[in-house]
């Protein structure tokens, strides 16, 4: 296994990974994965963020992408890195791939010397699956909530953070 950047030309590998974890898409979008979902993940930015802030990182076994993270560095403020998505291959859940990828993210962000906080949002419709993982690696709910609407899902997303430290 190796950890390396995931770029737009890797969209077929990411699409395969996302298809392997179809339950996530059903929980947060309400339906099946779209044909261009990977390309959208690799190119979509939150309001106020620039393309130079977007970082995709993956765990690869040869040409097979088995875990992926999408991070916006310096968003929503300069000291924060927001994880927009962290996904593992559906057949490989519970094998430590998410933790391995998160550790690589932390190490890469520490090297930047600008980020002190890691942030993410958990959509209520995915909370029962996502919260245990994020709690295990030190994230805490802030109490902040934002409306969430995507596909047929209308819900709330809760903000979680943790300090940027190796655990």
TrEMBL record:
SUPFAM superfamilies reported for this sequence: Acyl-CoA N-acyltransferases (Nat)
Residue stretches making up the N-acetyltransferase domain: 1-165
Ranges in coiled-coil conformation: none
A Pfam match: Acetyltransf_1
Keyword Transferase part of the UniProt annotation: yes
PROSITE patterns noted in UniProt: GNAT
Domain of life: Bacteria
Record keywords, A-Z: Transferase
GO molecular function per UniProt: acyltransferase activity, transferring groups other than amino-acyl groups
Record has RNA-binding as a keyword: no
Protein name stated in the entry: GNAT family acetyltransferase
Organism: Arthrobacter alpinus
């Amino acid at each position: 296994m190796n950890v390396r950047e995931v770029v737009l030309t890797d969209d077929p590998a990411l699409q395969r990974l996302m298809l392997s974890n179809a339950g996530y898409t059903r929980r947060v979008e309400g339906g099946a994965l779209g044909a261009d979902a990977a390309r959208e993940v690799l190119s979509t930015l939150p309001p106020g963020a620039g393309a130079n802030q977007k970082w995709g990182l993956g765990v690869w076994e040869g040409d097979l992408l088995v875990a992926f993270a999408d991070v916006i560095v310096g968003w929503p403020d300069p000291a924060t890195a927001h994880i927009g998505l962290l996904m593992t291959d559906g057949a490989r859940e519970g094998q430590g791939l998410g933790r391995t990828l998160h550790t690589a993210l932390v190490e890469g962000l520490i090297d930047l010397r600008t980020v002190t906080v890691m942030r993410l949002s958990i959509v209520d419709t995915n909370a029962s699956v996502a919260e245990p993982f994020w709690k295990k690696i030190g994230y805490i709910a802030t109490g902040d909530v934002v409306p969430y609407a995507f596909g047929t899902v209308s819900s709330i997303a809760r903000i979680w953070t943790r300090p940027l430290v190796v655990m």
